[in-house]
Design goal:
CATH class of chain B: Alpha Beta
Shape of chain B: globular
Distance between the termini of chain A: 32 Å
CATH superfamily of chain B: P-loop containing nucleotide triphosphate hydrolases
Distance between the termini of chain B: 33 Å
Mean pLDDT of chain A: 89
Order of helices and strands of chain B: EEEHEEHEHHHEHEHEE
Strand order of the largest sheet of chain B: 6-7-8-3-9-10
CATH topology of chain B: Rossmann fold
Structural class of chain A: alpha+beta
Oligomer: heterodimer
Strand content of chain B: 25-35%
Radius of gyration of chain A: 30 Å
Largest interface: A-B, 31 and 41 residues
Bound molecules: adenosine-5'-diphosphate, magnesium ion
Number of helices of chain A: 13
Largest sheet of chain A: 10 strands, mixed
Number of domains of chain A: 2
Shape of chain A: elongated
Low-confidence stretches of chain A: 1-8
Strand content of chain A: 15-25%
Number of strands of chain B: 10
Helix content of chain B: 25-40%
């Protein structure tokens, strides 16, 4: 056997596995792709969750505030709860508070919301909005939108925008400060019958070293209200703090395991059926049930790994799709989740290979070899 | 290799062997008290009408199916009452099988088809000088890297024979090895079997329908109705 000699018995079984996969390229490709789609689903969900939350955190920091005050009983990301506007005046009286401004968050569906601001006060805290087109509010029906939102919906200053009510776009501002869509606080309160109601009070201090003292004092005065430093608030914005998101992620992971299981089950089951003869030959050569099982498990392993790699690559595709079509929901590539998504794909796949593997291992050798 | 019995003990000793298949409600008596003794180094041709139990006898000898009753000894091992795992071991190390057709794994080259038998027996791929001699007899040098579909039927069958003996089995069982081959290829395969027998002393049992093929052996056993009749 000159030329084919060498110490590669292990390589031999790998070759058998690869040749088997190559033998049915379409089945192999479809199986790996189906596993990959599951991986992409997980990575996209995780990436969008973290991207959106990170974006909210960044925009919260972009307000320039040191402290924020929320109504009693509000949860971290449900901004639209209300409290009396009088709170703003109360906060302003606190020592070391340079500026406090109330904002009203009005949800308009589609994950979007309009934030009502007092432009002068907001500028004082945040250092001012930077206008890319147009300028500040002129009338009560005026909106400011950021460049991300403008780009997503191809909007320009001077145009009209229907968000349930019809608004005029007064200007397009640079993104990164608080919201994608701004309206005048008083007109938003009017239009949505929420006179003297605000959702969040943003507070700027004279010196950050007074932060703890002011928070303590506000907590005493505004009993039951939520008083956070912006850093603390940002640290609370995570998937763990949003039970529904966490549950949804788990559902998608569960689906991924089940679909991986089904895909591999079908794929390996048909492989075993069509390889009755080959399995019979191996058995006649003295292959144990474990040997046969090992071949199928290796094939499955290769499919799952190929699927996981395909899934990771496809997640760059979904990131691109999100960026182009839903720019207000940025998606991060979360490397830390790659091994998890791969492991999830592998788990479903290996479970799917068990039954076909047992069927092959138990198959009668003679029947396959004697009867055609 | 295998633990071989002393030379005076027959390689195969079959006494009053019965095999009954149950097909639905019906018992099919494939073997009804077969007796046979094969010496080491013999090349036995097994002939007989279709359905007389020749293949069944081979499947029992090869550990592919358990006997129903009687005694069967191969190289000193008692086949009756063997567990599945013991029969797997028997196939792995004591017998080599050649079937009528479709013997090879289609996705592997001829060389890898031979190597996989080594792998299953957990032996290194490197074979010994004796096996090199076998490859010499095979006359397939230069064809071993081909996949089965690129080989003629005769070549495929010779590869299957090489694979069957690569682990030095005590006996080689060939069930109509030329049943699918034309005259020229049949002659090559039969010639190989005879060379293996005369030059290497390989014990061979071969089922054949062809009287001319039967003459390649040094003894003929005739089967009828589940018994060896002469
Ligand atoms: N796996 C099996 N299940 C049921 N009946 C079988 C099986 N194998 C063989 N037989 C029956 O046993 C008898 C002997 O068959 P076989 O050993 O194949 O004969 P031969 O090889 O001499 O043609 C036949 O009647 C056949 O139908
Ligand atoms: Mg037969």
């Amino acid at each position: 056997m000159a030329g084919t000699r060498g110490c590669y018995t292990k390589a031999l079984i790998h070759r058998l596995v690869l040749e088997n996969l190559k033998h049915r390229p379409v089945r192999t490709l479809l199986s790996a792709t189906a596993i990959g789609v599951q991986v992409t689903m997980i990575l996209t969900l995780v990436g969008v969750s973290q991207g959106v939350l990170g974006d909210i955190a960044a925009r919260s920091r972009g307000t320039g505030a040191d402290i924020l005050v929320r109504p009693p009983g509000s949860s971290v990301l449900a901004f639209s709860g209300d409290m009396p506007q009088g709170i703003v005046g109360l906060v302003r009286k606190e020592p070391h508070v340079v500026m406090a401004t109330g904002t009203k968050v009005q949800s308009i569906g589609n994950f979007d919301s309009i934030t009502g601001i007092n432009l002068e006060e907001f500028n004082a805290i945040s250092g001012g909005l930077r206008y890319l087109e147009g300028g500040p509010f002129q009338g009560p029906d005026d909106l400011l939108i950021d460049d991300v939102y403008a780009g997503a919906h191809q909007l320009h200053a001077g145009g009209k925008l229907d968000l349930g009510l019809t608004w005029r776009i007064a200007g397009v501002v640079e993104s990164g400060k608080l919201s994608h869509i701004f309206a005048r606080l008083d007109s938003l309160q009017d239009k949505y019958s929420a006179r003297d109601k605000v959702s969040v009070v943003y507070v700027k201090l004279d010196d950050p070293k007074n932060l703890a003292a002011v928070i303590d004092s506000l907590k005493v005065k505004l009993e039951d209200y939520k008083v956070f430093s912006v850093d603390e608030f940002i640290s609370l914005i995570s998937v763990d703090s949003i039970p529904i998101l966490k549950r949804f992620t788990n559902v998608v992971i569960g689906l991924a395991v089940i679909v991986g299981f089904l895909v591999v089950f079908l794929s390996m089951y048909t492989a075993v059926l069509e390889r009755t003869r080959e399995i019979g030959i191996l058995k006649a050569l003295g292959a144990s049930p474990g040997y046969i099982m090992a071949i199928l498990l290796r094939e499955t392993f290769v499919l799952a790994v190929a699927g996981a790699i395909a899934g990771v690559l496809m997640s760059f595709g979904t990131q691109w799709i999100m960026r182009v079509f839903v720019p207000t929901m940025p998606m991060l590539i979360v490397h830390a989740w790659w091994p998890w998504a791969a492991l999830i794909a592998l788990t479903g796949s290996l479970i799917g290979a068990i039954y076909p593997g047992l069927k092959a291992a138990r198959q009668d050798a003679i029947e396959a070899l004697v009867y055609d | 290799m295998t633990d071989e019995p002393p030379a005076d003990v027959p390689m195969i000793e079959i006494r009053n062997l019965h095999k009954t298949y149950r097909v639905g409600e019906i018992d099919v008596h494939a073997l009804r008290g077969a007796n046979l003794s094969v010496a080491r180094g013999e090349f036995l041709a097994v002939v007989g009408p279709s359905g007389s139990g020749k293949s069944t006898l081979f499947h029992i000898l090869g550990g592919l199916t358990p006997p129903t009753s009687g005694t069967v000894h191969i190289g000193g091992q008692d086949l009756l009452g063997m567990t599945d795992a013991q029969r797997t071991d028997l196939r792995k190390s004591t017998v080599g099988f050649v079937f009528q057709k479709y013997n090879l794994l289609p996705t592997l080259s001829a060389a890898d088809n031979i190597a996989i038998a080594r792998d299953i027996a957990k032996k290194p791929r490197e074979t010994d000088p004796a096996f090199d001699q076998i490859l010499e007899l095979l006359g397939l040098k230069g064809r071993l890297h081909h996949k089965p579909r690129a080989l003629s039927g005769g070549e495929q069958q010779r590869v299957a024979i090489a694979r069957a003996i690569v682990n030095h089995p005590a006996i080689l069982l060939a069930d109509e090895p030329t049943g699918n081959l034309d005259t020229e290829n049949s002659t090559a395969v039969l010639g190989l079997l005879r060379d293996l027998n005369t030059r290497l002393g390989q014990t061979i049992l071969m089922i054949t329908h062809n009287p001319e093929a039967a003459t390649y052996g040094n003894r003929i056993a005739k089967m009828r109705d589940g018994r060896v009749v002469e």
